[in-house]
Specification:
The complex is a heterodimer. Chain A is of the alpha/beta class. Chain A is built from twelve helices and twelve strands. In chain A, the strands form two sheets. In chain A, strands 6-7-8-3-9-10-12-11 form an eight-stranded mixed β-sheet, with helices on both faces. In chain A, strands 2-1-4-5 form a four-stranded antiparallel β-sheet. The radius of gyration of chain B is 23 Å and the shape is globular. Mean pLDDT of chain B is 83; it is low at 1-11. Classes of the chains: A alpha/beta, B mainly alpha.
């Protein structure tokens, strides 16, 4: 078996905010195989974006290792690092902030091509830029060639940032909420375009989103990881997580997704949480971080012992004492 | 689009030079596209020719002519004659050079020091940043003209370089603070992160991503610094705080005033000529600044 394209091994990211430590990501492991799509879902502030930044080497985790094709990226020599840098790209959430306002479309796309010697002369450069713009459906390409970002719409800008990421022929793309800032009508076509890239170029994706419906649409063949306050609470193939959610938090998330069919909505099982408040990252609950909100809360265990990610079926892991049957076992032993 | 395609056709060993020239040329074209900016450019060009080329052709009239005192303007002497019967027009021609050179020198110094310190402060951060910003805050509270007046009493400012140095050092602080906060904000933006992810290198990030975003601010500041330095100099001369040597617009105003110009309507052109010269030069700079802002900030172009 070949090494996975990217592996996050027990990474922890601690930020110091006003001199108080805060773990944005706490001991999370994640594996992405070549050509695979992995979705990270969770509420705002659960560490999804930090995970993305760690995965593309923009942030060095406080603890833990990041392995690219089996090599620790923070211990790489220059050659391997350059290779990694080009293989892993990021598409940001906000297309208004991720493009330099003083550069034209062609300047934005030519800089990486030039820097890494991916084209030999100006004719090749132009051909490659045309090809990239075609790939991301910015047509007619001549119209876009000399435009500035402010002359493009949100959707067009986002396509341009995809094109920029594609300049270096990456094999792994971190898409950080890449479609959440554009109109719903544009979202589907953007997703379809990204899906095409994945199928045609075999690009692996780490797709970060807060929207389970998008995760379902984009990563049905892949896997979903559910994060809560910096921890991974459930991980499995998309059909497993969506059809048989085991963690109470995942269930709550899924029950919050609106369905187009009113009949379905009416008969949908609602998960009622005991509290709506997301705990502060400075002051996380002891034991399972979800226990103050959890409908399945068992006193004495959930508020004392932090649950580990344990398998419930093949390739489906959950960090919950109740779902994995740990609590019952403990009570019997006591 | 039609203009850009041919320039991409064939590679040339002079490519970087070409791109520099085409950059400058497109900058001038953009400046020309903005009517106010074009006026400013024309005005500044006019003053450049007036103060740096014309003195080579037209000699300074420094002969005292009793019969010409306050003689009225004519075609050959468009601003008439002064209290000693010297031609005012030749004094205007010869009186701008040092003023402008000192003003530009002071602005260059202030801009370089301000931009460099601001950028370093943002990049280094920590104690250095805090200390420098505290110094800037103190510096900003000092009223500059009164300080300059006091300084002028202690330092011999008859040497133009001393004046450049003093005025440059007086005006570095506001730019330092502004550049620091701009660098802090720009280096956090997503496009910088994208450039890092694309491994574009530090020099690309500094010179192609960060700096162009601040160029409009820095260049505007530079132009405004020239205007401030002009005012400072003429104020110093007018107040009699620097030696009244040579011919310059400030000295002209001073002499016109002390020799009774405000009491005599004959000398209207003697006092108005340098005032007009200074005012028009400043106006041209401010107009140019409007155009320059557009050149560096594509969002202002419509």
């Amino acid at each position: 078996m070949t090494a996975p394209i990217l592996e996050l091994d027990n990474v922890t990211q601690i930020f110091r905010v006003h001199n108080r430590p805060m773990a944005a990501v706490d001991g999370v492991s994640l594996t992405v195989n070549e050509g695979e799509t992995v979705c990270l879902v969770g509420e705002s502030g659960c560490g999804k974006t930090t995970m993305g930044k760690i995965a593309c080497g923009l942030r060095q985790p406080t603890y833990g290792r990041v392995l690219f094709r089996g090599q620790d990226i923070w211990k790489m020599d220059k050659k391997a690092w350059t290779e990694y840098r080009q293989a892993v790209q990021i598409i940001h959430q906000d297309p208004y902030a991720s493009l330099n306002p003083v550069q034209t479309v062609s300047q934005i796309l030519s800089a990486p091509l030039q820097r890494h010697g991916l084209v030999k002369n100006r004719a090749q450069m132009r051909d490659r830029i045309y090809e990239l713009l075609l790939t991301v459906d910015l047509t007619p390409v001549e119209d876009f060639y000399d435009k500035f970002p402010h002359q493009l719409s949100g959707g067009q800008r986002q396509r341009l940032s995809v094109a920029r990421a594609l300049t270096v022929n990456p094999s792994f793309i971190v898409a950080d909420e890449s479609v959440s800032m554009v109109d719903v009508s544009i979202r589907v076509s953007l997703l379809r375009m990204l899906g095409n890239l994945r199928d045609r170029l075999g690009v692996a994706f780490l797709f970060i989103t807060h929207d389970l419906a998008i995760a379902k649409y984009f990563a049905w063949q892949g896997r979903i990881g559910v994060m809560y306050v910096g921890r991974m609470v459930e991980m499995g193939s998309t059909p497993q997580v969506v059809n048989h959610p085991e963690h109470p938090y995942t269930r709550a998330l899924l029950s919050a997704v609106p369905e187009a069919d009113p009949e379905l909505t009416r008969h949908k099982e609602r998960v009622s949480l005991r509290s709506q408040d997301i705990p502060s990252l400075f002051n996380l609950p002891i034991g399972c971080a979800f226990h103050p909100r959890c409908p399945l809360f068992v006193e004495g265990t959930c508020d004392r012992v932090e649950p580990a990610l344990l398998p419930v079926e093949d390739g489906h892991t959950v960090a919950c004492h109740v779902a994995t049957g740990q609590v019952v076992a403990r009570e019997r032993a006591a | 689009m039609a203009t850009a395609t041919p320039s991409l056709e064939r590679p040339s060993p002079l490519a970087p030079l070409n791109s520099l020239f085409s950059g400058i040329w497109s900058g001038v074209r953009l400046l020309g596209a903005n009517r106010v900016g074009l006026l400013g450019l024309l005005g500044v060009t006019f003053f450049f020719i007036l103060c740096f080329v014309m003195p080579l052709i037209i000699p300074l009239d420094d002969k005292v002519k009793i019969d010409q005192i306050y003689a009225a303007p004519s075609l050959l002497h468009p601003f008439g004659f002064d209290s000693q019967g010297k031609d005012v027009w030749t004094q205007i021609i010869h009186g701008g050079r040092t003023l402008i050179l000192i003003a530009v020198g002071a602005a260059v110094l202030a801009t370089l020091v301000g931009a460099a310190l601001g950028a370093f402060s943002a990049v280094i951060g920590g104690r250095f940043d805090s200390a420098l910003m505290a110094l800037v805050d103190v510096w900003l509270t000092i009223p500059q003209l009164p300080l300059l007046i006091v300084l002028a009493a202690f330092i011999r400012v008859n040497d133009p370089w001393t004046l450049v140095f003093i005025m440059g050092l007086l005006s570095w602080a506001p730019l330092t603070r502004a550049v620091r906060s701009q660098v802090l904000s720009i280096k956090q933006r997503d496009f910088i992160e994208a450039a890092r992810a694309l491994d574009l290198g530090t020099s690309h990030i500094v010179f192609r991503e960060v700096l162009p975003n601040m160029m409009s601010y820095i260049s505007i500041n530079f132009i405004l610094a020239i205007t401030y330095a002009m005012y400072f100099q003429t104020s110093l001369v007018f107040l009699g705080l620097v030696p009244l040597s040579g011919t310059n617009w400030g000295v002209m105003i001073r002499f016109a005033q002390t020799r009774g110009a405000i009491y005599s309507s004959d000398s209207f052109w003697y006092i108005m000529a340098p005032v007009l010269a200074i005012a028009l030069f400043q106006l041209s700079l401010v107009a140019l600044e409007r155009g320059v802002a557009e050149v560096f900030n594509p969002r202002l172009r419509s």
